[in-house]
Amino acid sequence: MKLIGSLTSPYVRKVRIVLAEKKLDYELILDDPWGSATHVTAHNPLGKVPCLIMDENGALFDSRVIVEYLDTLSPVGRLIPPPGRERIEVKRWEAIADGIMDAAAAAFMEARRRPEPQRSPDWIARQHQKIHAGLDYMEQLLGEQPYCTGVNLCLADIAVGAALGYLDLRFPDMDWRASHGHLARLADKLGARPSFATTKPPASA
């Protein structure tokens, strides 16, 4: 398998962490979907990363679709429960974590990539409101649990860890840890895992 992505995308990192936890071999092909030389559009008509190129079955895109597929490839460390209430709980966590990533990426692009005369402070503020509301929700939901859905690592934790890592990368002054002690504890625990340590984006990116 080949994974097209960037080192800074939290969605790509989520997929890479799953690949590492599942002990699946793949080749990472770096691509800047915003650059003129991007080639991801040859495989994903939406021009987004991550994009997983499979040996026989074409390509998959959207991190949620990719990680669900990857979890079926090996019985090692199942990350998504079978259909039922537990699965819905994991997917709820993934949805809120991905929503935080969406808002953070939108705020970053508006503030850093759009020409200053065209930037909307109201739009950026709205995205930050979503981020903080999402953090508050996850903090309360996590509570004293060792992991998002109980005592074992699952896709929920990977999605949350990727989202929190992206906040650290793009908004280092946000200091979300100060008011979200449970999430900070989880982030530290996840950061010690090889799958998270080896996929941490470069600070200068």
Concise synopsis of the structure shown:
With 205 residues, this protein is of the alpha+beta class. The protein has helices spanning 10-21, 63-71, 85-113, 121-142, 155-170, 181-191, 194-197, and strands spanning 2-5, 27-30, 51-53, 59-61. Helix 1 links the parallel strand 1 and strand 2 (27-30).
Structure description:
This protein is an alpha+beta fold and 205 residues long. The protein folds into 2 domains: 2-71, Glutaredoxin (3-Layer(aba) Sandwich), CATH 3.40.30.10; 85-193, Up-down Bundle (Glutathione S-transferase Yfyf (Class Pi), Chain A, domain 2). The protein contains 7 helices and 4 strands. The chain has helices spanning 10-21, 63-71, 85-113, 121-142, 155-170, 181-191, 194-197, and strands at residues 2-5, 27-30, 51-53, 59-61. It has a 4-stranded mixed β-sheet with strand order 2-1-3-4, with helices on one face. Strand 1, helix 1 and strand 2 form a beta-alpha-beta unit. Helix 1 (10-21) runs parallel beside helix 2 (63-71) and helix 1 (10-21) crosses helix 5 (155-170). It is globular. The model has no long low-confidence stretch (mean pLDDT 95).
